[in-house]
Amino acid sequence: MAAPRCARSFFEPAKRRQVTTPRPYYQTFSRAKSSRAEDDDDIDIPEGSGAPRGNMTLEEQLQDMGIEPEKYKTLYKSQQRANAKADEWEPMTREDAWKRWEELKKAPDHFTMLHMYKRAGIEPIKLAKERGIEIPGGEKPPLDPQTQKQLNAIRTPVNVQAIHLRPLRRAPSYAIPVCDLQLRTYSIRNMEFFADFAMRAAYYMGLPARGPVPLPRITERWTVPRANFIFKKSQENFERITMRRLIQIQDGHPDVVKAWLAFLQKHQYYGVGMKANVWEYESLEDATKVGKEAKDGDYCGRREGPMLEKINEILGGKGFKEAMKGFKSPMEMRA
User: Record's SMART domains (predicted)?
Assistant: First the structure.
């Protein structure tokens, strides 16, 4: 199949291309001289207008424009040095050009307006402060020396410093697993953040934790036909990859583990699912009490028995009743 005429020039050999030179431009119209052209040279230029005259020296022209000769000489010499440096830096060959380009990519930009002022010996910030010009963004007023000294003496708390470090861990005594927490997500960034949060929460709650351990990914694929009958081959494929991490708690008290899981559930991060397997270990004495009839208010057979008895003692005390006299809970008010 032949290429279109507009694209043939791009596919033919380079030696067959014709280099066209631009045609010279000739002015197609003539401008007649104004009748007042003879009087243009006789126009009087008022002094102090900033328009230099042809018969004035450089000093007189600078004085007429209100420019100090010393500043003009400083700027002129700075510009001459910059031009000379640019001429020396100008590459002569293609290899030099590539070398200059690699150097430019690794070097900072020194051709900004601020650098040009600095090369000329002008400090814009200092000059703005001298003339009372407010710097964009403003500056905070300096504190008195005593307040600044007190602020410098304040030490950053250890838990704030630990945010920038890896999570701290506690060493287990017997390495008996009591909880396996599995985190699942489709976004690895959310899961890594929440796993770090869970490890720090376990440390501050006194739980020895191991992990997060990467688990194999779960890859699921589906093929859905887009239409029926003769369009059976027109199918669409879908894929879902589930990433997982495992955090194991060892030698932890069951009540503390439940509090840890409740804390994580309260502050659960979006896009991250949790699945926990909890084990509780009982003594042999508890096995002999299996099948014993439990009476209402009898907590001796439960692990939380001493704590529940203490709660009943507080709730039944005289001081608590006097303090809660006349108070109605939301449930009582609703009823």
Answer: Ribosomal_S10
Residue at token pair 């100090």: 68
Structural domains of the chain in order of their starting residue, each with its CATH number:
161-284 (3.30.70.600)
Question: Residue 256 has which token pair?
Answer: 């503390």
163-192 burial: b if 16+ Cβ within 10 Å, else e: eeeebeebebeeeeebbbbbbbbeeeebbb
Q: CB–CB of 199/169 below 8 Å?
A: yes
Residue 184: phi and psi, rounded to 5, are -130, 145
Burial of 264 (0-12, 13-18, 19+ CB in 10 A): buried
Cβ–Cβ contacts within 10 Å for residue 198, how many? 27
Determine phi and psi for 249, rounding to 5 degrees: -100, 130
User: Residues 6 or more apart from 75 whose CB is under 8 A from it?
Assistant: 120
pLDDT digits (tens, 9 = 90+) for 119-131: 777 787 788 888 8
pLDDT at 57 over 60: yes
Bridge partners of residue 101, in order along the sequence? none
Which residues have a Cβ under 8 Å from the Cβ of 304 and sit 6 or more positions away? Answer: 255
Q: Quick one: tokens of 21?
A: 């030179």
Do the beta carbons of residue 194 and residue 271 sit within 8 Å?
Answer: no
Dihedral of alpha carbons 249, 252, 254, 255, sign: negative
Q: Report if pTM > 0.90.
A: no
**CB-based burial, 43-67: b 16+ in 10 Å, e otherwise:** eeeeeeeeeeeeeeeeeebbebeee
C-alpha 34/C-alpha 40 separation (Å) is 10
User: Contact 218/252 with Cβ under 8 angstroms?
Assistant: no
The H or E element containing residue 225 is strand 209-225
Short-list 206, 159, 209, CA closest to 181: 209
Q: What mean pLDDT comes out for the span 235-245?
A: 93
Any idea how long the chain is? 335
